[in-house]
Amino acid sequence: MAVQAAENDGIVLKNVEDDHLNDSLRNPGLISPDKEEISRLLTVPFSGRIRGGMRPGKKIIVMGIVELEPESFHVSLTCGRDSEKDGTLHDVALKLTARFNDRQFMRSARIAGKWTVEEASTDYFPFIPDQPFRIEIHCEHQRFRIFVDGHQLFDFYHKVKSFTSIDTVQIHGDLQITKLG
What we know:
By secondary structure, the protein is mostly beta strands. The chain contains one helix and 13 strands.
């Protein structure tokens, strides 16, 4: 299997099944990989490193297209990128779950191996099968502020206090990723 990686606005793109990053694509002289390489790198399930971790003022952008007949998808900001390799569960600072059967956009966290109660979404469900979307996760001092397609949907107050430990974005489920930033 060819191992590939690319950097995109501070997120190191990496296929989940790959074990090592290819240094040739991290060459500072490389402007951008071609579209075919990026599409392979944005395969779901996806895991990518957040360079330097999160901090107030930083935002994560996920752009994608919902599958034609979706059940759900998840976008998570996690801690301790390598901790699951040794069998320990990592903390999840924020898990966003879009559930299509009941049209809910939920959020939760996992601290010390225990999930918090899922917080219910607003009445507005922004995702439509076979349509594009843009999720923005803004990190502020007290909370994450979540926007979809430019509309602020909700806040999620920090459960993980060490922002720099939030070092990975993971994406799973019934969607195609078109861009990360």
